[in-house]
Write a structure and sequence with these properties.
A: 171 residues; B: 221 residues; elongated
């Protein structure tokens, strides 16, 4: 895979990749770092891509695996250092700051309060994937996905409502 | 707000995000070239160096111990030193092999399981390497110098001095652990230093165990 093909792949799945990055990183500089790391893992893993598999399933797996590792590493690093705000030099991927509605911000905050693995399940659900595909991405059984999803949706709803209440009280 | 509303809200948010990504192919080419050239990340580079140094040490001290196997001091301390170095090589080889075989396209829980297990092995290995090092570092140094100089250094060293070094090593290890527990909450850079503090203070092992438990809970039906 050359750089043009990788760039095309990133552009084709930009929404998916950015949503994963958005779910695991608070600041834009970290999101850029994470997206670049995901893209490089996609590039490394591309030779092993099984064509009978759906491309989006493969991308979700790589993206979530990299994002959870990145999140844990950065959280540990952030606990130890004062700032990670600077973007890397020569970043080949850049993100504009999109306008985010209050409701979307509350949903994102609700998502961010979930543990990393639960967050990956919630993210796949919000992206509209069915139980079988979520199970394939995460390596769980479809029935387990259904059970977990019920609980996670309740928590997501509670987190969202709490966030909305806080938002209103701050105005 | 119901479930469908959440999905609609997320989809609208995703559509906005989609248009905010831009890719610079020129800089991307440079990044891929750097990746291709530096296939060995610092982690793998250090591990490979440890492997080479360990193998070199084993080849150096092995014949020295074999020559003096009839002498109790060489048989006991020399064998302990060889066993320690061999175990370190095996551990490093294991971490290197397992690390290189990690595939990020695997299902999330499977990869997390591998990574968490690997972290546990790494922290346990580090703990035992430190404890073993306290006992064996002096015989290893003496045997290595003996291999270089041909002088029977291990035979000439006073037994009390050898024991004294083990005691001092154990005391330093204890002090190091205490210091690491105090320093663990302070800002530290680079990443290797923070990993060392995690390993010395025992926090890394506790975190790795917690992650294994968290994953088991998540994967449970």
């Amino acid at each position: 895979m050359d750089e043009a093909e990788l760039a095309a792949l990133v552009r084709r799945h930009a929404g998916l990749l950015h949503k994963v990055a958005y779910a695991y990183c608070r600041n834009p500089a970290d999101r850029e770092d994470l997206l670049q790391e995901i893209a490089l893992q996609l590039w490394r893993a591309h030779d092993r891509f099984d064509r009978s598999q759906r491309e989006s399933t493969w991308i979700y797996r790589v993206a979530l695996n990299v994002a959870i590792s990145f999140y844990r590493r950065e959280r540990r690093h952030r606990e130890r250092t004062s700032s990670l705000e600077d973007a890397p030099e020569g970043a080949w991927l850049s993100l504009a700051a999109p306008e985010v509605s209050d409701e979307a911000a509350s949903l994102w905050r609700g998502l961010a309060e979930l543990a990393p693995l639960e967050r990956s399940l919630a993210l796949l659900y919000l992206d509209g994937l069915d139980h079988a595909t979520i199970a394939e991405v995460l390596g769980l059984s479809p029935s387990n996905v259904g059970t977990k999803l019920g609980r996670i949706k309740e928590r997501l709803r509670a987190n969202y409502q709490r966030s909305q209440t806080q938002e209103r009280s701050q105005r | 707000m119901n479930d469908d509303d959440f999905q609609r809200l997320w989809a609208a948010h995703g559509a906005r995000l989609e248009h905010s990504v831009s890719v610079n192919e020129h800089l991307l080419r440079g990044a891929l070239l750097r990746e291709a050239r530096g296939a060995l990340t610092p982690y793998f580079g250090w591990r490979a160096l440890e492997l080479v140094l360990g193998a070199g040490l084993l080849f150096a001290i092995g014949p020295v111990v074999a020559r003096h196997l009839g002498e109790p001091r060489y048989a006991l301390l020399g064998s302990a030193a060889i066993l320690y170095v061999a175990l370190l090589i095996a551990l490093t080889g294991y971490l290197l092999g397992r690390g290189a075989s990690l595939r990020y396209e695997r299902p999330v829980t499977e990869l997390r399981h591998e990574l968490d297990r690997l972290a546990l092995v790494e922290y346990h290995g580090f703990k035992w390497a430190l404890l073993g090092g306290v006992v064996t570092w002096l015989p290893i140094v003496l045997l290595a110098l003996e291999a270089l100089s041909g002088v029977d250094l291990l035979a000439r060293v006073d037994g009390a001095w050898l024991l004294g070094n083990v005691a001092v090593g154990a005391a330093l290890l204890g002090l190091g652990q205490l210091a690491a527990r105090r320093l663990i909450e302070r800002p530290t850079d680079p990443a290797r230093a923070s990993r060392l503090l995690d390993a010395l203070s025992g926090r890394g092992l506790r975190q790795a165990r917690a992650r294994v438990a968290e994953l088991a809970e998540f994967a449970r039906e």
